[in-house]
Amino acid sequence: MNQLINDHLCETRNNLVEEIQLLSDSQFNAKPDANCWSIAQVCHHLSLTEESFIKVIAWGLKQENSQQTERKNIHLILDRTTKVPAPDFLEPTKDFVTVQQIMTLLDDSRKKFTTFLDTIEDPSLLTEKIFKHPFLGELALDQWIELVYIHEQRHIEQIKEIKALIKVEH
């Protein structure tokens, strides 16, 4: 795996852990209002997303005829003024979960993701093959990999907002 990508994945995950590790389980599951996710749900969504990206990249690599597409500005995903509804299969649980349970899920999804990336025999295919993203359109597979940490950065900002709304002391 590309060292820069690995560094971004590690740095972003460390930032996420820093935001959640000291929360009580009740703070972790608190919702600012009925229409918002809890921090636990945001983190569960991140774990589900990371695992789904493994499938997307694997499917993309198996595509026979994949035309190259222009590089997209995937950093648009950081704009939190644009709400992007999660597909049903990435909707988090409504159950009460502990910080430790979610930390384990996040560790597992990251290990699966990095292990999967390490099994890709020809990484050059990642820039050549594409798969359609529901919000961004046709994306090269290497941009899907970058999207893991960019998506996580987006949700770290959401977690900070939720913490302020439920009045978690920093």
From TrEMBL:
The protein, known as: DinB family protein
The DinB-like domain, residue ranges: 11-159
Species this protein is from: Lysinibacillus sphaericus (Bacillus sphaericus)
Species classification: Bacteria, Bacillati, Bacillota, Bacilli, Bacillales
Pfam families: DinB_2
InterPro entries: DinB-like, DinB/YfiT-like
Residues forming coiled coils: none
Domain of life: Bacteria
